[in-house]
Design goal:
The chain is an all-alpha fold. It has one domain (about 10-169). It is built from 7 helices and no strands.
Length: about 170
């Protein structure tokens, strides 16, 4: 008879990792579905994004096998990088849309506004994720739960798609 040697917490973290990556993939698909033809810079940033995402299952395994402050902090760093690259990619795609849909003068004004929003979002990402990484060094178990909540919140928060629809009008 074959014994089941996979602990239930490993299965839980496996599916959690799948949900986290699925959430990033969902947002990436929404973002790229609005581009007719992706320029090279979009493809390069997209590959950077995907390369970062491939590390999440490895780090999830590390957290399962040896839950430690270092494991959770590394997960946080990779999660932060994914969020930053996604923000950068969102900004690039948004710029492509505004310059293709609007007169140059109006597009430049909107891009200036979105540049400020991107800088603010980047600062907030650093503050939030930096706090979580610091918390990981003090209380890794609590930080794991915080990292569980982030993709769930991100999944249910409004996406950029509404903004792009407004621009197309």
């Amino acid at each position: 008879m074959i014994e089941n040697k996979i602990p239930s917490d490993q299965i839980f973290y496996h599916y959690l990792s799948l949900f986290v990556i699925g959430n990033f993939w969902y947002h990436l698909t929404l973002l790229l579905s609005n581009i007719k033809q992706a320029p090279k810079r979009v493809i390069i940033v997209d590959l950077m994004y995907l390369a970062d995402l491939t590390l999440l299952p490895v780090l999830t395994s590390w957290i399962i096998e040896k839950p430690s402050a270092l494991a959770v902090a590394n997960y946080g760093i990779v999660y932060l990088i994914a969020q930053l690259v996604r923000t950068w990619l969102r900004h690039i795609v948004f710029s492509i849309h505004i310059f293709s849909a609007l007169p140059a003068e109006r597009a430049a004004i909107i891009e200036d506004h979105t540049d400020r929003q991107m800088r603010l979002r980047t600062i907030l990402l650093f503050i939030l994720n930096g706090s979580l990484i610091a918390l990981a060094l003090l209380n890794p178990k609590l930080t794991i739960y915080a990292y569980l909540a982030l993709p769930i919140l991100d999944f249910f928060l409004p996406s950029h798609k509404k903004l792009i629809k407004k621009i197309k009008r």
